[in-house]
Amino acid sequence: MSDVIEVLDAAGVELRNVKRLLGDSGEVAWGRLLDWLVDDWFRLDVLGLENIPADGPAVVVANHSGAWGLDAFVLQRVFARTIHRPLHVPAAPVLFRVPVIGSYARKKGAIPLDPLLGLEHLNAGELVGVFPEGISGLEKPFRKRYRLRPFSPGFAVTALRAGAPVVPVSVIGAEEACPRMGEIPALARLFGLPFFPITPLFPLPSKWIVTVGEPIPAPPRPESFAERSAAARQLCADSRAAVQALVDRERRRRDTPFW
Asked: What is the structure's pLDDT at 96?
């Protein structure tokens, strides 16, 4: 009997090793695919990198667009490759359930979504990236592309608590790469997703431009709750206006969405 138990234990170890190796291979493949998409398929241009603090905390605030939220992976990859600083992006639980992609995102800096929005990382002097439109940014129909939805002010509350500047970022190209033409509610329920979009199976070869704007300093944190709430709302509004201005300006830089 003990021999059988030993064989089963050994088999279990081997299966776990195989699963780990397959997961590692999948993550490497996903990383290479992202590099190819960034360099060759989207022909990404990055502007304004000098506006990202070389050290210390900052909240990077970007528009969220495209049916599948590919912009979060691209932005995270860009930061790692250019300024060599990890970007910690709070992500919904559903992301971490996706095989390979979920584990890859976690290793590259994605963090579970919670009300503090990465406050501990800011207190440690790191970068946190947020998409304050949330899922509603991805649900925009194609005819309303690049029109920012209302921002959730949670990131502004966190920036105030940490005394971290807000760095506005515009991402142009994701709307055309993964245009949302509709959705299939039945498939969303089946897979436990917020929504299941009707969009091309593979991203279209749109031209991407990521532009980093000038940081917005966080004001001194007021003592009273009412004053802190007002300051957070103002910082949220200023950040949304800055991102929308970048989006509007950078859209005009492209002769066509595909070139």
From this structure: 87
Can you list the residues of the chain whose pLDDT is less than 50? 4-22
* Residues forming beta bridges with residue 169, ordered by sequence position: 62, 212
Task: Name the token pair of 34.
Answer: 């992202």
Would you state the structure tokens that stand for residue 87, as one six-digit string? 């970007």
* pLDDT given at position 1: 52
Output helix, strand, coil percentages for the chain, rounded to the nearest 5: 50, 15, 40
Distance from C-alpha of 182 to C-alpha of 51, rounded to nearest angstrom: 37
What sections of the chain are H helices per DSSP?
2-36, 70-82, 93-96, 101-107, 119-123, 135-138, 154-162, 174-177, 185-191, 225-251
- Specify the pLDDT at position 14: 41
> Can you read off the two tokens belonging to residue 255?
């002769």
Q: Taking the CB of residue 90, how many other CB atoms lie within 10 A of it?
A: 22
Identify whether the C-beta of residue 71 lies closer than 8 Å to the C-beta of residue 210: no
Q: How many CB atoms lie within 10 A of CB 32?
A: 10
Record the pTM: 0.86
Looking up tokens 């929308």 gives 244
For the chain, counts of helices (H) and of strands (E): 10, 10
For residue 194, what pLDDT is reported? 81
Among 169, 208, 150, which Cα is nearest to 63's?
169
pLDDT at position 176, please?
95
Residue 196: the pLDDT is: 87
The rounded distance, in Å, linking the Cα atoms of 132 and 28 is: 29
